[in-house]
Automatic annotation (TrEMBL), chains A, B:
<dbReference type="Pfam" id="PF01638">
    <property type="entry name" value="HxlR"/>
</dbReference>
<dbReference type="InterPro" id="IPR002577">
    <property type="entry name" value="HTH_HxlR"/>
</dbReference>
<feature type="domain" description="HTH hxlR-type">
    <location>
        <begin position="6"/>
        <end position="105"/>
    </location>
</feature>
<dbReference type="InterPro" id="IPR036388">
    <property type="entry name" value="WH-like_DNA-bd_sf"/>
</dbReference>
<keyword id="KW-0804">Transcription</keyword>
<dbReference type="InterPro" id="IPR011991">
    <property type="entry name" value="ArsR-like_HTH"/>
</dbReference>
<dbReference type="InterPro" id="IPR036390">
    <property type="entry name" value="WH_DNA-bd_sf"/>
</dbReference>
<dbReference type="GO" id="GO:0003677">
    <property type="term" value="F:DNA binding"/>
</dbReference>
<keyword id="KW-0238">DNA-binding</keyword>
<protein>
    <submittedName>
        <fullName>Winged helix-turn-helix transcriptional regulator</fullName>
    </submittedName>
</protein>
<keyword id="KW-0805">Transcription regulation</keyword>
Length: 119, 119
DNA sequence: CTGTATCCTCGAGGATACTG
DNA sequence: CAGTATCCTCGAGGATACAG
C-alpha cells in the first residue's frame, strides 16, 4: 500500500493525527505503562479510543506492546527507538511553543494540564 | 476565551490541524504568494478551504495578509516572524522523517509530491 | 484487566453557485 | 480575482454492552 504526502512534515502530523496520540506518547516518555494506567492518566479517553490509538502507534513503530501471560491479563506499553527519538525532536516544538504562547497569549489565556514542560 | 491543552506539543498540532495548513505554509516558505497562486499550487484545495485555512493561519499569527486596493483585486499572503520561526523548527521534524521513512519504508512505499525536501 | 463489537453523533471538509 | 453562503457527505470519535 503506497502512501502519498505533500511534504515530509505531514508524515509526523499523520503519525500524531489521532486526538489522543500526543497525549499518550507524553506519558510514555516518563516510562512504560500498562493499559489501565494509561486509561487513568489520559483523562477522558474511552476504552475504544485507547486501544485504537495504541494499535496505530504500534503499527507505526512508535510504541511497543508487551503481553504478560497471566491472570488477570497484563499488557505493558513503552516507547520504541523511533518513538523516543520522535519525542526528543518534539522537544524543539515544545520550546517554540513556550515562546509563542509567551508572546501571543501572555496572562494565562492558554493553560496546560501538565506542569511538567512535557512533550 | 481560555484554551486548554494537555501538553505543549498539542499547541502546534492545533495550529497545523487543518488538512491543508502544512501544505500552505510549505509554499509560503518559498516566498509570498497571492490567493490564486496558492489555489494552483496547493493541488486539490477548494476555494472555501483555502480562505478558511488562511484566515485561521492569520488569526494565529503565522501568516500575514496584505490587500492591494486595485481592480482586479489582489491579496498577498506571507509568513510572519512566528510563521517562519515555526517552519524553521519543523525542519527538524523533516530530518527525523527522512530517517524514519528510510528505515521503515525503504523502496518507495512512501511518496512525497514535492522533490524539494520541503517543510 | 484488556480488548472487541455496535450504534450514533457531529463537525471538518467537499461541491456548487453567487457577490463585489 | 478574492471571498461568502448553502447544502451535503462521511468518518473520527463517543457511549455502551459484551467477551476471554
Amino acid at each position: 500500500m503506497k502512501k502519498e504526502f505533500n511534504n515530509r512534515c505531514e508524515v509526523v502530523l499523520n503519525l500524531l493525527s489521532g486526538k489522543w496520540k500526543a497525549h499518550i506518547l507524553y506519558f510514555l516518555t516518563k516510562g512504560p505503562a500498562r493499559t489501565s494506567e494509561l486509561k487513568r492518566l489520559v483523562t477522558g479517553i474511552s476504552q475504544k479510543m485507547l486501544t485504537e490509538q495504541l494499535k496505530e502507534l504500534e503499527r507505526d513503530g512508535l510504541v511497543a506492546r508487551k503481553v504478560f501471560n497471566q491472570i488477570p491479563p497484563k499488557v505493558e506499553y513503552s516507547l520504541t527507538e523511533h518513538g523516543s527519538s520522535l519525542t526528543k525532536v518534539l522537544g524543539e516544538i515544545v520550546e517554540w511553543t513556550e515562546n509563542y504562547v509567551e508572546q501571543r497569549h501572555p496572562d494565562g489565556e492558554v493553560v496546560f494540564h501538565d506542569n511538567d514542560d512535557g512533550l
